[in-house]
């Protein structure tokens, strides 16, 4: 997420305002500033243009700008210093679980590093949840997992429907684990990535078949009450599926954690 845009000096605005004035001004200004900061139009350490300039850029009042800046602070993107203006914070301070910050980071990341981190996080959490599910899953859950795996074998020529069932399979395991926080984190992360081309990657009948072979191994370990085997199968499945989808982009070494 390195800065790629030119560095605007105080009192300047290098990007035009609205092409169409939005209904919710504070939310729209916030979203636009998040994108500009993540994109590097306002790099870390640079002061945002002063209020009058931002007001003119977006054709809004100072109240709207102040509300937007307050939200940016809450997201960790800026810090307001009395007498020194609003300074853009370094990426390490950004709240990457925030919907706008994560979505913008994924959109602007050509190296796939953000998606690599997302997959590693998902892998850690889902492997642990599979470990727990192998100990706690009841017969209803096992029947559901078996039903989904069998159904996905029939859906390998219908990629969109296959992927819907894929998500249901993983969610059934997360629910069986009883870890609502881990499930919430995974679902939140995937909600931001699931429509992006970089995350979805390529798919085909052969890839769906390979993916479902991984699902079946996970199911068999859970049904066999094998926590370690279930965790290992989940880890392998998520890693291999992502390496296929990401193709040659980025640095695969980031996944070896």
UniProtKB/TrEMBL annotation:
Domain of life, source organism: Bacteria
Region described as Disordered: spans on this chain: 1-21
Record bears the keyword Transcription: yes
InterPro entries in the record: GntR_C, TF_FadR/GntR_C, Tscrpt_reg_HTH_GntR, WH-like_DNA-bd_sf, WH_DNA-bd_sf
Any Pfam family the entry gives: FCD
Domain HTH gntR-type: 23-91
Signal peptide: none
Keywords: DNA-binding, Transcription, Transcription regulation
GO molecular function: DNA binding; DNA-binding transcription factor activity
Protein name, as recorded: GntR family transcriptional regulator
Organism: Lentzea atacamensis
